[in-house]
C-alpha cells in the first residue's frame, strides 16, 4: 500500500497535533510493546487479533498486555533499586492500585517484586483475595472508616498512611485491640504541585490530603507517644502525569528538612515520595525516560541529605499509571459518522459504542487521547476526527482530536491506546451501560480478568425490577 501524500492541516485541529504521513501507523510511544499490524492490516496485541478479541468479548472491551505490564513493573523496580543503591540506600516500589486493580493485576505486581498501595476496604479486599501478603500492602485515604482501619490492622497490613491528627488515635486503638505494633507514615503537604513539565512551589497546599509540614513534628510526637504505633517516615505526593524530576527534587528537599528535625526525637527510617510519573497519551507527549527520572531523583535526595548532614533513608515510590497505563488499550465499534462544518472547515464526528462511562478522564480533566483504526488499514487521506461516545452529554468525548483515514465507517473497530490506568477504575453505569470486560493478552492467548456487565446484571440490583433476563443490549459480554 502506497503512503498517501501529506494532507494540509485542518484549522480546527489543536496546534500540537500534526497531520500524520500515515494515519494507520502505530506510534510505539503510545502502544503496548506487542502492538503490531498483521499482514492483513489488522491490529494485534499480545499475539491476539482485535477481531478475535471482539468476537469473543464484544465491544467495548479493555485489553491489557500482561507481558508489557509486567515488564514495566519490573523495569521501574530495577532502575530505582539500582539508582538508590548507587547513593547508599534502597528503594521500595509500591504499585498504586487506584490506577487499576484486579486480583490478577495484584498477582502480577507482587510476582514482579512490588508492594501494593490500596485506598479503601474494597481495594484491600481485592489484594487479600489475590493472596498478597498483607505485610506488603500500604493503606492510603483521607477518611478511612473505623471498620477499614480495624480490618487493615487485623490483617497485618504493612503500613497505614496517617492523613490527619484524628487518625492517630484511631489506628493506635485498633493496633492495641489486636495486640499489634502498627507501622505508619504521616502524609504531609510539601507545597509542591506538579503536572506534566511544570511545577508550582507555595507555602501551603489547599487540598484535602495530608497535613502541613509545620504541623508534622507535633503529630509525629503524638504518634511516638503510642506504644502500639511505629513511625516510619513522611509521605508526600506532588501530583500526577509529571514529566521531569524538578518537582520531586523540590519536594524531597522540603520533606528532608523536616525529616532531619524528626531524627532528633527518634528513628525515621523511610521517606516516601509518592508517584505521578507521566506517560504518553498523544504523539506530542514526551515523558522523561524512567531511568533518567530515577537517576535525577536519587541525585537530588543524596544532595539534600548531604546538605543536612543526615543519612540517606530508604526511599519509597508509588507508580501506577506508568506501569499499567501504556499496557492497556480500549476497543470500540464505530456506530455512526457525521461531518460537522465549523466556519470554513469541517471535522468528522465518529461515534463509538462506549464513551464517558468507560473513560471519564476526557470529561473530568480534559485529557487527550489518540485513536487508530484497528480492523484494517487504508490509503484514504487523513481526516480530522473527534471520537465521541453514546451518552446523553455533549461533553461525552473519547478522543478530542486526531487524524484517522477519511474512509472510517460504521462497523469499523477503533482502538484507543494508553487506557490501562484510571479508565476501568473510574468507569460507571451512566445511561445504564454495563461496564466493559477486562481481558489480558499474552503469547497469543486471551484471558478474562473482569467480567463485563449486562443489563440483566444492572437490573439485578434494582429491587423493583422483575427477576428476568433482558439480554445484553450494550455489547458488554464475557
Q: Could you tell me how far the N terminus lies from the C terminus, measured between alpha carbons in angstroms?
A: 36 Å
**CATH domain class of the largest domain:** Alpha Beta
- CATH architectural type of the largest domain: Alpha-Beta Barrel
Helical stretch tally = 12
Number of distinct beta strands: 24
What global shape is seen?
globular
Give a short account of the largest sheet: 9 strands, mixed
CATH topology of the largest domain: TIM Barrel
Structural class: alpha/beta
Proportion in helices: 25-40%
How much of the residues is beta strand, in percent?
25-35%
Poorly predicted regions: 474-478
Please give a structural write-up.
- The chain has 478 residues and is α/β, with parallel strands linked by helices.
- It has twelve helices and 24 strands.
- Strands 4, 17, 18, 19, 20, 21, 22, 23 and 24 form a nine-stranded mixed beta sheet that branches. An eight-stranded parallel barrel has the order 5-6-7-8-9-13-15-16, surrounded by seven helices.
- A hairpin with a 2-residue loop joins strand 2 (43-45) and strand 3 (48-49).
- Helix 2 (66-86) packs parallel to helix 9 (290-308) and helix 5 (146-155) crosses helix 6.
- The longest helix is centred in the N-terminal third of the chain and has 21 residues, at 66-86.
Amino acid at each position: 500500500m502506497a503512503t498517501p501524500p501529506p494532507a494540509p492541516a485542518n484549522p480546527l485541529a489543536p496546534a500540537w497535533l500534526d497531520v500524520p504521513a500515515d494515519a494507520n501507523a502505530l506510534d510505539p510511544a503510545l502502544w503496548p510493546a506487542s502492538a503490531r499490524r498483521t499482514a492483513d492490516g489488522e491490529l494485534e496485541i499480545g499475539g491476539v487479533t482485535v477481531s478475535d478479541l471482539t468476537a469473543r468479548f464484544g465491544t467495548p472491551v479493555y485489553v491489557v498486555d500482561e507481558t508489557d505490564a509486567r515488564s514495566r513493573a519490573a523495569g521501574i523496580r530495577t532502575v530505582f533499586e539500582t539508582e538508590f543503591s548507587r547513593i547508599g540506600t534502597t528503594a521500595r516500589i509500591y504499585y498504586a492500585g487506584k490506577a487499576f486493580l484486579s486480583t490478577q493485576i495484584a498477582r502480577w505486581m507482587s510476582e514482579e517484586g512490588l508492594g501494593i498501595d490500596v485506598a479503601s476496604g474494597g481495594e484491600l479486599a481485592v489484594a487479600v483475595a489475590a493472596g498478597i501478603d498483607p505485610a506488603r500492602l500500604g493503606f492510603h485515604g483521607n477518611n478511612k472508616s473505623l471498620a477499614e482501619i480495624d480490618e487493615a490492622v487485623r490483617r497485618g497490613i504493612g503500613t497505614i498512611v496517617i492523613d490527619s491528627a484524628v487518625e492517630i488515635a484511631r489506628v493506635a486503638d485498633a493496633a492495641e485491640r489486636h495486640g499489634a505494633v502498627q507501622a505508619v507514615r504521616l502524609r504531609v503537604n510539601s507545597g509542591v504541585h506538579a503536572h506534566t513539565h511544570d511545577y508550582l512551589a507555595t507555602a501551603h497546599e489547599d487540598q484535602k490530603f495530608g497535613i502541613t509540614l509545620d504541623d508534622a513534628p507535633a503529630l509525629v510526637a503524638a504518634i511516638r507517644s503510642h506504644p502500639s504505633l511505629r513511625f516510619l517516615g513522611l509521605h508526600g505526593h506532588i501530583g500526577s502525569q509529571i514529566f521531569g524530576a524538578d518537582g520531586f527534587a523540590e519536594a524531597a528537599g522540603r520533606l528532608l528538612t523536616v525529616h532531619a528535625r524528626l531524627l532528633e526525637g527518634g528513628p525515621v527510617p523511610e521517606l516516601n515520595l509518592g508517584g505521578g510519573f507521566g506517560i504518553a497519551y498523544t504523539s506530542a507527549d514526551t515523558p522523561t525516560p524512567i531511568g533518567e527520572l530515577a537517576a535525577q531523583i536519587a541525585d537530588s535526595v543524596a544532595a539534600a541529605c548531604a546538605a543536612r548532614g543526615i543519612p540517606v533513608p530508604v526511599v519509597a515510590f508509588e507508580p501506577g499509571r506508568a506501569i499499567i497505563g501504556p499496557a492497556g488499550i480500549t476497543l470500540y465499534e464505530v456506530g455512526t459518522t457525521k461531518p460537522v462544518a465549523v466556519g470554513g472547515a469541517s471535522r468528522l464526528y465518529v461515534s463509538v459504542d462506549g464513551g464517558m462511562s468507560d473513560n471519564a478522564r476526557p470529561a473530568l480533566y480534559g485529557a487527550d487521547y489518540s485513536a487508530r483504526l484497528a480492523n484494517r488499514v487504508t490509503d484514504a487521506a487523513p481526516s480530522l476526527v473527534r471520537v465521541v461516545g453514546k451518552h446523553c452529554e455533549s461533553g461525552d468525548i473519547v478522543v478530542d482530536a486526531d487524524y484517522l483515514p477519511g474512509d472510517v465507517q460504521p462497523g469499523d473497530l477503533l482502538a484507543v491506546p494508553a487506557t490501562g490506568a484510571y479508565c476501568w477504575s473510574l468507569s460507571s453505569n451512566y445511561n445504564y451501560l454495563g461496564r466493559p470486560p477486562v481481558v489480558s493478552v499474552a503469547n497469543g492467548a486471551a484471558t478474562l480478568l473482569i467480567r463485563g456487565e449486562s443489563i440483566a446484571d444492572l437490573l439485578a440490583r434494582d429491587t423493583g425490577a422483575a427477576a428476568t433476563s433482558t439480554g445484553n443490549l450494550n455489547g458488554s459480554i464475557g
